[in-house]
Design brief:
The chain has 9 helices and 10 strands. By secondary structure, the protein is α+β, with helices and mostly antiparallel strands. It has 2 domains: 2-66, no CATH class; 80-347, Chloramphenicol Acetyltransferase. The strands form 4 sheets. The protein has a 4-stranded mixed sheet with strand order 4-10-9-8. The chain has a two-stranded antiparallel sheet with strand order 1-2. Strand 9 (296-301) and strand 10 (307-313) form a beta hairpin. Helix 6 (154-170) crosses helix 7 (212-228) and helix 6 packs across helix 9. The longest helix is centred in the first third of the chain and has 20 residues, at 47-66. The protein is globular, with a radius of gyration of 21 Å. 26% of the residues are buried. The mean pLDDT is 89.
């Protein structure tokens, strides 16, 4: 029953004008089993905020049972983010980041993949669709261990696999990808609920890489450089307006990438004898991003250790069969890189 509620909530529409902006419902199945749901519009929250809400509800619940005040920190108000942004953009750190991106992004457009047919607002289906591809916990543990032996993370393996896939699709060995970032550039906002999520470009020029290992190491270096110089994405677009030009091409799709660590039933979020997240058999499309930007590759590692690659897409732009082919090849490449890191990537 909990899964039915989960799916129904995902399929329901929610206007950002709806009041209240945060809705909590408690479903009781029997005296010992219940489901707590929190629903809000993505304009008001993000994945980081969801974790904060879970921890704060648990802390307040435990404090109330014990008859003592909670000890949660006082968050910085969300409205202060605009003040921080203005101050940051006037700082020397922002000037340093701008110089870095000036070198990295001059004349660059984000990588796009071909659509199966022309698409646009006039052809758009009522909802986006999603295909899910998995690697079982034991096998994915091997992927993580292989990455660690090369002082890399699974994220670097994901990027390496996509480099190989991108070259096969387009023949290109210099690609720039938009990576979803938590957007909390200042630690003062770590306890603040709100929509901070942002994009960070990662440029991967892998023409000189010989092996899968080289691709992973390049991904590690490029990711670290991008994170070190991250700045609000809208500020980058003011300087490089053609960066996302491909997103408006009716024959192209701009893939973006989001790596999600699935919440676990940890002590911080425990306010009952047993707390378990509701995990559907496959990821469900939320349809809060539309158009060419809806080609979102989300990587999830569940608390069980299972890996999921969920690809959201507009069905008027690309066929399910095409997405399935890309997804299957992608997860196969992840495992190939883990098993044979020294293999020449062009000999796959």
């Amino acid at each position: 029953m909990a899964l039915d509620v989960h799916v129904a909530l995902h399929e329901a529409e929610l206007s950002f004008l709806a009041i209240p902006s945060l809705r909590a419902d408690l479903y009781r199945f029997d005296d010992r089993d219940a489901l707590l749901t929190l629903v809000t519009h993505h304009l008001f929250s993000d994945g980081w905020s969801s974790d904060l809400l879970r921890r704060e509800i648990a802390a307040c619940y435990r404090a109330r049972l014990a008859g003592v005040p909670h000890t949660l920190p006082s968050p910085v108000p969300y409205r202060m983010y605009d003040t921080w942004k203005r101050e940051f953009l006037a700082s020397e750190k922002a000037a340093e980041c701008s110089r870095y991106w000036g070198r990295e992004l001059a004349g660059v457009e984000m990588y796009t993949m071909p659509a199966d047919r022309p698409h646009g607002p006039e052809t758009r289906a009522p909802r986006t669709e999603m295909e899910t591809f998995t690697i079982d916990p034991g096998r994915f543990a091997e992927v993580a261990a292989s990455a660690a032996r090369h002082r890399c993370s699974v994220w670097h393996v994901f990027l390496a696999a996509f480099m190989v896939l991108a070259e096969k699709v387009s023949g290109r060995t210099d690609i720039t990808l938009p990576i979803v970032n938590n957007g909390r550039y200042d630690e003062r906002f770590y306890q603040t609920v709100g929509l901070f999520v942002d994009l960070v470009p990662v440029r991967l020029d892998f023409g000189g890489c010989a092996s899968f290992r080289d691709l992973m190491l390049l991904a590690r270096r490029a990711s670290a450089d991008s994170q070190q110089h991250r700045m609000p994405f809208d500020s980058l677009l003011e300087v490089f307006p053609d960066l996302v030009k491909g997103a408006f091409d009716p024959l192209a799709l701009l893939p973006s990438f989001n790596y999600v660590r699935s919440p676990k039933a940890e002590v911080q979020t425990r306010f009952a004898a047993s707390v378990e997240p509701v995990v559907p058999e496959k990821e469900v499309s939320a349809s809060y991003v539309r158009g060419a930007f809806a080609f979102i590759w989300t990587f999830v590692v569940l608390s069980s250790g299972e890996f999921r690659c969920a690809i959201g897409y507009e069905p008027d732009a690309i066929d399910a069969a095409t997405v399935q082919r890309l997804g299957i090849e992608f997860v196969d490449l992840i495992q190939m890189i883990a098993d044979r890191p020294d293999q020449k990537w062009k000999d796959r």
